[in-house]
Every structure is written in structure tokens, then in C-alpha cells.
Amino acid sequence: MTSLRLLHTSDLHLGKRFGQFDEETRAALQQARQGILPRLAQTAAEQGAEHVLIAGDLFDTETPSARVIRQALAAMAAAEPVQWWIIPGNHDSGAAEPLWAEMARHAPDNVHLLMQPDPVEMAPGATLLPAPCQHRFAGQDRTIWMESAETPEGHLRIGLAHGAVLDFDRDQNGAETIATTRASSARLDYLALGDWHGDFTLNAHSRYPGTPERDRFKHPGRGSCLLVDLPGPGQPPQLRQIEIGQYHWQELALDLAPGQDITALIRAALPADPPDWPDCLIRLRARGWVTADQHMQLRRFVAEQAPAFCHLSLDEEALRIEHRAEDLDQIATAGALRVAAETLMAESRNSTLAQDDRDVAAAALNRLYAAVQEGAE
């Protein structure tokens, strides 16, 4: 009976720019992303896996730089005898002819570019059925052909595809959605999927590994890959998630109310071990009500702590500021500033106004209060 051990990964998105972050954070995340392939190679060696399946989106765009391409190939070449099996995804589709021509021109013998939906014997007794994204928008399920694909009797049948099986993206064309029953209808021992950036189990024979280096707060934690053991044709695969990501993404809720010790609450919410902070990206979601003084404390404390992390930000969308009469005295006791502050407070509390207008008035009052306090310091 044929058995096989392999690593399954996808959505490496090499060359991703991370434009939503500051320059230092972008550089750190880009460097970690370039280190994914050596980490995968090391994991494969440690786990005794001779094959790595990359289920699409090796690159973030169809036009990665020559440096990104050549360094990726060098990292895979250095991992010999590990064999790398790669299909194009929607971000780096097969329509990007210059990209894949450059890959083919410099690819070492242990890198296999699967550009057509044709069966490939990847190992003795194991046939790989790839479904490459030949165009960014296919308009149909690329895995349909696997049902009629013939493979030698007694061979493991392994599918490799990139695309959604559920409505992960509301704008997605439903015709391209991969059938949730594809593993059974195509008699696959394992269907290695890519596209979803978080780990997702469809069924016993179909899995998304998630990106090996997380790239957004939507998918918290560290990136991982899947160690897949295929005991034999017709037997369920044995899967183990292996954490390999450098950076830990976390979104933390901060429930606030007047009278609380703001700094103590934040300290309790943050990771307990400061030496781990440089590898953490954290978004604090503040919600509830605070006084103007508490709001200032909140912002100051986050600004003071942010340099200790790879990234630390504050989301105040669900936070409301409770302004009191004494807050206006700290802005001004008379004159134009006092008049402006009173007008903004009145508008922020005026129930006859639209909520958006009230929010604008409250935000303006917050800025005025903060500006006066910072000027006084």
C-alpha cells in the first residue's frame, strides 16, 4: 500500500507591500514573508516530508520584482531533496506569462510549475491533479476535470486547487466556487486547497492551511502549514497543523466605562511577556464610554507603548466620550474658545440632529480638548 507524507501550504504572497502600515512595520513584515520558504523547508526536513504543495498565490501580484522571484527560487533550490509543487493562484495567475517564463527559466530541478490541468506522478504510487488558475477570473470551477481524470490503479489521488468553496468573498462569482463535494466526486484521497488566508477544514479530505505568515487581523494568531500523512488509497488523511509564522496578529477588545483605571485595563489586555512584543501586531478595539480625561490617558498610553511592538493601534469607532461641564472649564472659562466648546457640546447632545452630525460635533470637541491639554503641557 502506497503512503506519502507532505506539507501543504498556500497564499505566501511574496512581495506583498503592506501599504496600510508605517515604513518600519512594512519592512519587518516583508522580511518575514521572504523568510517563509526557508522555514517551510526546515519544517519539511524536520518532519520527514519530501514534498511541499503550494496551492496558489506564491506571489502577491502578477508582476513581482526580479529580486523576489530569484530569491524565492534560491530558497527552494537550497532545500533539495524537498520537491516543490506549485500552481498559479488568482493573484499570480497563469496569464502572467512574463512571471512564469522567468520562473521556468531559472527553476531548479526540485521546483515543479504546474501550469496545465494534467495528472502528474509526483512520487511512486501518487498522482497529483492540479487545477491552476490560468486566468484571474475563470468563470467556472477549475476542479471539475478531476472527476474524469484517470490515474493508475492503486495510486493516491491528490488534488491541488486555488479558489473558494464557500462565499468567502461576497463579490465572488458563484460559478467559480469549488464544489464542496469535489474530494468525494473525484475520488481524491486529499484535496489541498488555497485562497482562504485562515485555516479552514471543509471535510476529512479537504483543507485550507491558511497563509504561513498571517497578513491581517481577520485571521488572528501566527501563520501555519499542514503536515499531511496519506496512509494509502481510500484511507482518510492524517493532518497536523504546524505553526511557523514569525508574527502574532491579535485583535483585543477593551471594554471601558467612566471611573476605570485605563492604564491598568490596557496592561491586563496586552500579552503578558514583554520580550514577545516585537513579534506582535495588535489592534485594540475600545468600546463603551469614557470621560475626556480617560480618553487622553488612553491615547497617551497606547502611543507610549506602541514602539515596543511590531504594531500597536487603537480603534475608537465604538467608543463614546462623555463630556462634562468641568471639561469645558479646562478648555476655557470665557471667550471664543468657551463659546465654541459649549456649541459643540450642545450639538453632540442634540437628539434632533442626525447621529452623524452629533458624532462630528463630539469628535471636534475631543480634538479641541486634546489640543488645549497638549498645549498646556
Give the topology, please.
Layout: E1 4-9, H1 23-34, H2 36-47, E2 51-54, H3 66-77, E3 83-86, H4 97-106, E4 111-113, E5 120-123, E6 126-131, E7 156-162, H5 182-185, E8 190-194, E9 200-203, E10 206-208, E11 224-230, E12 238-243, E13 248-256, H6 262-269, E14 280-291, H7 292-305, E15 311-322, H8 325-331, H9 335-349, H10 355-376
Parallel strand pairs: 1-2, 2-3, 3-4, 6-7, 7-8, 8-10, 13-14, 14-15
Antiparallel strand pairs: 1-11, 5-6, 9-10, 11-12
Rounded to the nearest angstrom, the distance between the terminal CA atoms is 76 Å
How many strands, which pairing sense, and closed or not: the largest β-sheet? 6 strands, mixed
CATH topology of the largest domain: Purple Acid Phosphatase, chain A, domain 2
C-alpha-based Rg, rounded: 26 Å
Write down the secondary-structure element order. Answer: EHHEHEHEEEEHEEEEEEHEHEHHH
**In the residues, how many domains can be counted?**
2
Strand content: 15-25%
Widest β-sheet, arrangement of strands: 4-3-2-1-11-12
Residue-averaged pLDDT, rounded? 91
Tally of DSSP β-strands: 15
Any low-confidence stretches, pLDDT <50, length ≥5?
Answer: none
CATH A-level architecture of the largest domain: 4-Layer Sandwich
| Share of helical residues | 25-40%
Q: What is the CATH C level class of the largest domain, in words?
A: Alpha Beta
